[in-house]
Amino acid sequence: MKKILLINGHEPFKKAQGKLNQNLFKHMEVVLKNFEIEKTVVTEGYCVEKEIEKFKWMDAVIVQTPIYWFSVPGLFKTYIDTVFLEGAFFEKAKKFGHGGLLTGKQYLFSTTWGANEAVFNRKSSFLEGKSVDDVLFPLHKTFQYCGMDALPSFSVFNAMRNQHIQNTLEDLSIHLNHHINQSKEKSTFTKELAQIAKGMLPYH
């Protein structure tokens, strides 16, 4: 794995300006500095043809996005609807879901949640025992429909009140090192990243 596509799917709202997602996105680029990287920030606009070429080029795509109302932001959903085209991402198949054209490629979801971690995986909670990946099932199936294979997801909970930014970046470093870098390094938390953490606000 040498070529990584990073996508920032954040869409700003009054109470969710995107500081946390922006800095997680920046952090990924630092951690993966030894890879070839292409980036897409959905709010900055995009060319459909160029996005298709990025997906053909990459070995893995990492999606950084907040979760609003148990789904991705509207702009990112529009991105998927616009870019994931038949003939480029999938083709008709005799067996439903087996026409993906991006086989051999991987995806990883990094998501931020307003919910507390305690509401997941507990039958007595509002989510009735569902895990993060259960809630993300439609998003997983969208990428899998195109032939991609999942890497373990990364999640940040209680994003509106998260006061442990340095720990969050450390955790992301470890996750990426293990699943993308395939490194045993504990962290890549540098002085540069410490400065990012210092200036980061704990909002989606």
UniProtKB/TrEMBL annotation:
PANTHER family: NADPH:QUINONE OXIDOREDUCTASE MDAB (PTHR46305:SF3), PTHR46305
Obligatory cofactor(s): FAD
Protein family membership: Belongs to the oxidoreductase MdaB family.
Entries under SUPFAM superfamilies matching the protein: Flavoproteins
Ranges in a coiled coil: none
Origin organism lineage: Bacteria, Bacillati, Bacillota, Bacilli, Bacillales
Ranges of residues in domain Flavodoxin-like fold: 2-171
Alphabetical UniProt keywords: FAD, Flavoprotein
Protein name: Flavodoxin
Superkingdom field: Bacteria
